[in-house]
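debug: dumping io for the single-chain case to check the tokenizer round-trip. Nothing else runs in this session.
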Amino acid sequence: MISKTQARKILDYDLVDILKYVMEINQNRNSNNITYSQNIFLPLTHICQNNCGYCTFKQTPEKAQYILMNENEIHNQLKIAQQYNCKEALYTFGENADSIDIVKDKLKEYGYESMVEYVYNLSYDTLTKYNILPHTNMGIITHDELKQLKQVNASMGLMLETTNRKLLNTIVHKDSPGKDPKKRLRYIKQAGIEQIPFTTGLLIGIGETFDDHIDSLFEIKKLHEKYGHIQEIIIQNFKPKPGIAMEDYKEPNLVDLMKLVIVAKLIFKDTLSIQIPPNLNRQLMPFFILAGADDVGGISPVSLDYVNPEAPWPEIDKLKDEIGSINYKMVERLAVYDKYIKKEYLNDLVYEKATYLRNKI
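debug: decoded output
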């Protein structure tokens, strides 16, 4: 593993100078497998307390397509997902949405007091009625709520995005109290205390620096070394979109992203996976895989990426061919990685379903 100083030097290198690291990474890989999870993305509500400058997911109550997905609709979607052999249900919704009266009222109409109570029951039904594992990403919740959702989730997630607190005063996060890096690191730590298999990551191109990237990766490393619960880091590139506050921002270039993937791989070696979203990097995945990425995340045959709805998922067979062109092989995984399918990480009900599904892949 490399130090902060070495990592910073690599990010300053030219492309030609980093090729030796590409060779080293590919010579030392334990496997040529690139993993993915076949999932369904269920955006329970687009209403959110944050107002990030890059976001198209959030909708105001006045303009929302719907306030809160109802259980019948969710079950219909899960039935379709099971027909397509999806094994992960990604439950996502706006942070602290139930602090907003219109969402709170809808929850009461459905018979629930909070979003955590609602997603708990949805996750329980997912586990007991379908061959699908729940993964929840709902922003920051309390430690007790985190413990509650662990009982019915195979894994959970929260993007760190960056450790740069200066962005809280810019167009990026000035209206987003939940995006304070201190709060997010504390939440990831709480997930570690509870031994929850966890996904986190960096958002690249929102005004941060190379030094911020290194600091962010080493903060994640510190938590993972203490708790061992982080199963993957997403390196997600910002994409400008019409109508967002940051539509004039430039997206990060390919070489800088490749260098960051290389650095992440050298920092973590094989202790966790490095994920690159394939729908945001069409026809570029072989470059990122050669740089050290070994996971492409969730891919859905039945739903959009509602965070980036303009970027459709690639067809799995086409992505397999693309990755096969550099002699790597795509293999399916669950929402919880194999090394976390243990009772120290999973509640009995989740463990039993994960063990059953692992044998079906």
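debug: round-trip ok. The first strand starts at residue 33 and ends at 45.
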